[in-house]
Amino acid sequence: MVEWTDFERATIQEIFSKIDSGVVGPAALSRCLIVYPWTQRYFGSFGNLYNAAAITSNPKVAAHGKVVIGGLEKAVKNMDDIKTTYKDLSVLHSDKLRVDPDNFNLLADCLTIVVASQMGQAFTPDVQAAFQKFLAVVVASLRKQYH
Amino acid sequence: MTCTLVNAAIKWSIKAQHVCWDLSSVGFLSVVTMLSKKEKKLIKEIWERLTPVAEDIGSDALLRMFASYPGTKTYFSHLDISPGSAHLYSHGKKIVLAIAEGAKDISQLTVTLAPLQTLHAYQLRIDPTNFKLLSHCMLVTLACYLGEEFTPVAHAAIDKYLSAFAAVLSEKYR
What we know:
heterodimer; A: mainly alpha; 8 helices; 71% helix; B: mainly alpha; globular
């Protein structure tokens, strides 16, 4: 089981209570599709992803970004057993969506950058470390059911 | 030479705690040709702006790296890397100024970085996985500092540039 310090717990709860999930989710996903264009391979049905402007204004990308944040909020509510919470999601990503798990790290990085630009100086090195630890646990849980 | 870089890159990726796309395996030349004129201009402008605050940017990125990736501290046992220390500022400044210098003419990166290549290969011998960790933390620092201005396009351009920078730095390793 993952050990969370009081600081880490409080930091994660605070970040997710402060951020506007309607903004951060879409921003992180569109950033990922722009900065790492090969991730677009999983979104063939999303329509126009030809350039940064198209991706940023694509309504399907925005909608899906919100879905992703919703998934993360589940993990925030169940920090002591993210592995079990994500069992079905992991199976979904492995068997149905067939996402290369290395891509999870790319999206995680983009999410870190988006939260950083929102929080500015409040996103201190220690806050960053806590956030990245949380994302690492999320990614590991999503990878768990791959076979 | 590209083959050795690819093999090395694969090994480094497996060792890396922080797995991200390893553009150093693609090699410096390919990354540079993939930077458009617009991107090179954007990169040059951004790093020019950051030069006056090189100390702050550099020390911030280093502190983030030490906090998230404690293994990186092992390279600094000879320095005081506590927040606010003089060593931290001067070392951070050195790094940012080198990145800014390279950004002035990216096509000449191998020439500009020649002395630093030798330093890293024969003296410092920093495991190249760590370049990715610092690059990531540098991007986070830029996000905090530039906020909305750190657009996805700027992010992509600088990420590519830092990958090229790291690839050139490790060229003389073997």
